[in-house]
Predict the structure of Glycogen phosphorylase.
Amino acid sequence: MEATAANTVFTTHTPVPAGHDLFEQEMIWGYFRDCFNDLGVQRDDFMRLGGASYGRDFNMTKLALSGTRHHNGVSRIHGRVSSIILSDMWPQVRPCESPMDFITNGVHVSTFLAKEWQDPFEMGLMMWL
């Protein structure tokens, strides 16, 4: 799991607590029991990856954060808000120092910026895309 986590990014898209799904652990076990058995993963070990912080419920966001070493929100403000919402994932650090980072959609500008707006940028900022 560590090899996968070191090379995987989790991007959260929902900056509200309701956007982080919680499921009863028995439901998770019922759906994933065969996968655990096939992979040789112990039930308690897996449940810890998505449990604890929210009582007995399995937290899918915590699972994603446990299985990645790079985490971000989809904007600077979203990264800050997510750091606060998810602060119990890293209780040993203040939200402003959490490993939650951010990205911007700047790499996708050409896919959502109207052609009429692209031309002026191109004239003033050659090769801006």
The mean pLDDT is 83.
